[in-house]
Each structure stands twice: as structure tokens, then as C-alpha cells.
Amino acid sequence: MQNLFIGKGNLGDSPKLKHVAGRSGDFTVASMRVMFGRYGQTEDGGVEQVGGFWREVEIYGAKAEACAKHLRKGARVLVIGEEREFTATDDDGNEVQVIKVVAEDVALQLSRIESITFTPSRARETEAAEV
């Protein structure tokens, strides 16, 4: 990777999955917008967000399908990939430079989950047997 990108951010919307025909066959792409925050230290030693930036993130193949299945708007994710610059045309017909992250890996950051209801399979079997 030439332009290694590693960042933690929040999904601005749920991933959008699409199937694309390529030279070597069909492949799956998940695209998502992620807000990466910038943090700084306050005078009293705390940490506060002092800015941030949005990036379009794309991931391919089986990982794309997993992202579409498990990630939702607002999820905290760790993105590892490569930043690439593209030329695109906006709604007014002007050419603009767009920076995307082509992800090698996207991981859900579980530290943001406050509570999970978990019932072990043996407990469900015991409950079913008692009924």
C-alpha cells in the first residue's frame, strides 16, 4: 500500500451493497460514508473533538457482504486501507477531486456498545425443556 490509511470513525449511513461486472468476473462492493474525528487536549487535561472529515470508504468481496450485513448507521468502525484520489463530475458538470479510502479491512469497534442481551444456547435449551 502506498498511502496507508488507518482511522476510527462513525458511519454516516448504513453501507450500500452493489454487484459490479469486471474484467475478471463479477464482484461485490460495499460503499459507506465515515466521519473521522480529530481530537485535541483541553486545558484541564481532558480530550475533546476539535474537527473531523468525511471519507467515502469502499471494500470488496466477502468483506463487503459482511459489512452490509453487520454494520449500521452510527456504528464505530476501524478502517485500514489506502487513500486514492479520483476525478468526478458534480451535479453542475464541474470536475472535482474526490478522495476515497479503498479498505483492506473494516472492523466494528465493540467498545461503543453499551449493552448486549446474550442468552447462551444451553439456557435456551433449558427454558424450552421446562415449558
UniProtKB/TrEMBL annotation:
GO molecular-function annotation terms? Answer: single-stranded DNA binding
Task: Please name one Pfam family that this protein belongs to.
Answer: SSB
Superkingdom in the source lineage: Bacteria
| Keywords assigned by UniProt, alphabetized | DNA-binding
Which Gene Ontology biological process is one annotated for this entry?
DNA replication
Give the matching InterPro entries: NA-bd_OB-fold, Primosome_PriB/ssb, ssDNA-bd
Q: What is this protein called?
A: Single-stranded DNA-binding protein
Query: Source species, please?
Result: Diaphorobacter nitroreducens
